[in-house]
Amino acid sequence: MLGSVWLFSGAFFAACLGSAQVPMEKEPHHHLILESEALRVLEPSIAGGDTTLEHLHVRDDATVCISGSSMRTRSPGADWNLVGEPCRLGQINVTEYAGKPASHTVQNAGSGVFHLVVVENMRESGWSTNPPFSALATTLAKETRAFQIYQVRLDNSSRKTIHVHKKPTIVVLVSGEVTAENQHLVQPGQWVLIPPDEMHLLSTQTEATVVEIEVR
Fold first, then answer.
1. In the CATH scheme, what is the homologous superfamily, with its name and number, of domain 138-215?
2. Which single residue of 41, 111, 116, 124 could bond 34 by disulfide (Cβ 3.0 to 4.6 Å)?
3. How many CA within 13 A on the CB side of residue 152?
4. Rounded to an integer, what distance in angstroms lies between the CA atom of residue 9 and that of residue 5?
5. Rounded to whole angstroms, how far apart are CA atoms 180 and 193?
6. Where does CATH 2.60.120.10 sit in the chain?
7. Are 167 and 147 in contact (CB under 8 A)?
8. Average pLDDT over all residues of the chain
9. CATH homologous superfamily of 21-121
10. pLDDT tens for residues 8-57?
């Protein structure tokens, strides 16, 4: 009898542990690729029909959509929300979690793979206030307390651009092929880290679109 009680208690404990929320970077679908004092880069990849563990977001993050699917989310203790429209390649979103952390479970209700590049600003406050810069073929796409996000479009009229970021920056390829920081990016979702205050060149032989996420 005692053994049965122990087995039941152990199974109950394991079930509770399995259902507990985990930090985003520990959630199995959210692959942590790079971590530094200033930022993290993660690549969530969720196949059709898959569901994540309930996971916690605590810092502001910026996302670039690489491939979309029909997704839905559920907050703790709530029902699933309605299935959303798939994100578009290159779509940029920023969510401000610092100071107001939130957890949820995510489910891919579609058949395609949901894939993002996520840049997380490790600061919880005291973000920098450096003004945006201007450069050839480069436009400011989004500015928040934690990020300045630029879109660079290279084509026949401007196949290269050179500029400096004051803060660490992640350059994400959206389309085409581009050389950045002596690395040749050829697939959407490939990215490279640009150190702060370092002059860097983006160039292409044809056409290319990239997103640059600068942490503040």
1. Jelly Rolls (2.60.120.10)
2. 41
3. 30
4. 6
5. 9
6. 21-121, 138-215
7. no
8. 92
9. Jelly Rolls (2.60.120.10)
10. 344 433 333 345 789 999 999 999 999 999 999 999 999 999 999 999 99
